[in-house]
Specification:
There is one protein chain. The chain is mostly helical. It has one domain. It has 14 helices and no strands. Helix 7 packs across helix 11 and helix 12 crosses helix 13. The longest helix has about 40 residues.
């Protein structure tokens, strides 16, 4: 697709305004459904888990109050909300998983009861029979995805939108709040079950192929224990799927919008916008688009390279940090 076609975006505001202001207006206009979705998810979670402890219940209450405040703010003072929404959005994103409370609760659920459709350690389906190996691996893959909270990370990134630099800080902070719980969770009773560890080992072997594009991979240099294999996979899901891929998507979308913004400024006789974020957006756009002189790299290939690096370094650092 020609870059001119990809750049035809309906950015609100006018070209004389800074890009971050215009893109924030766009996020404010499109973010109403995201707030409603988040409020519904948190209310459903709170209602389905009446056994939440005090801190977790307070986190759910505070999050619901924050999202409800954003909805009311948008309805009553739309212009003011559009201008200043990033501050509240940043707080909601950073605390979206309770600063670790959410993942702690998820690990408790996994170790205390079987998830629907997933065999527990006491289930006869977890055994060493070859016929059950594929099913055990699939169930364990779903279980590890669940405890990684990668799905929640993606939802938060796509619903609570903000400028790329703030989004990167918020998403990295979210992932950092999850990491301290990983090794202890992987050493818990369910993940220590021999059949679970065999399934985890199979998944580790399959995911090792993600690092194929790297010329000098580091992952083969370590020999992780069963607990470390689990920790590597969970951390990879958090970093690769929950951090890098959403940020790549945001970067490509924002770079496309920034290219449209710059074209509109040129058409209006205004100088090109400059600065760190302007440089970053320009580099991303030249890398991924068909602009003359740019290196055309499909976003899918960039995603694979990012995932390969994430797997390689996650495996190396997690298995090396005893």
């Amino acid at each position: 697709m020609a870059p001119g076609v990809m750049c035809r975006l309906d950015l609100p505001g006018n070209p004389s305004q800074p890009f971050h202001y215009r893109i924030n207006l766009n996020y404010a206009r499109a973010g109403a459904w995201g707030d409603i979705l988040l409020l519904g998810v948190h209310l459903a979670f709170a209602c389905s888990r009446p056994d939440l402890d005090g801190p977790s219940a307070n986190w759910q209450l505070a999050t619901c109050a924050g999202v409800a405040a954003s909805i009311l703010w948008r309805l009553l003072l739309p212009a003011h909300h559009a201008r200043w929404r990033e501050a509240l959005t940043l707080v909601l994103r950073l605390t979206g998983l309770g600063l670790g409370l959410g993942v702690h609760h998820v690990w408790q659920v996994v170790h205390s009861e079987a998830l629907p459709g997933m065999p527990s350690a006491a289930d006869g389906g977890l055994n060493g029979e070859p016929a059950a190996a594929l099913g055990d691996a699939a169930a364990q893959m779903a279980r590890l995805l669940f405890v990684s909270c990668a799905g929640s990370l993606v939802v938060l990134a796509l619903t609570l939108r903000m400028r790329l630099t703030l989004s990167a800080v918020a998403q990295a902070g979210l992932v950092a709040s999850l990491l301290p719980h990983t090794r202890a969770g992987c050493a818990g009773p369910l993940m220590s079950h021999p059949a679970i560890q065999r399934a985890t080992h199979r998944i580790y072997g399959m995911l090792s192929w993600v690092g194929t594009p790297l010329p000098l991979p580091l992952a083969p240099m370590v020999a992780p224990t069963p607990v470390e294999e689990c920790a590597v996979i969970v951390t990879f899901f958090q970093v690769g799927l929950g951090l890098l891929l959403p940020l790549l998507w945001e970067a490509v979308v924002a770079a496309r919008a920034f290219a449209a913004h710059q074209r509109q400024r040129r058409a209006a006789g205004l100088p090109a916008e400059r600065g760190l974020q302007a440089w970053l957006y320009t580099q991303v756009w030249e890398l991924c688009s068909n602009t003359e002189g740019g290196l055309t790299v499909p976003p899918a290939l960039l995603a694979w390279i990012l995932l390969a690096v994430a797997w390689d370094w996650t495996a190396f650092l997690t298995a090396s940090s005893h």
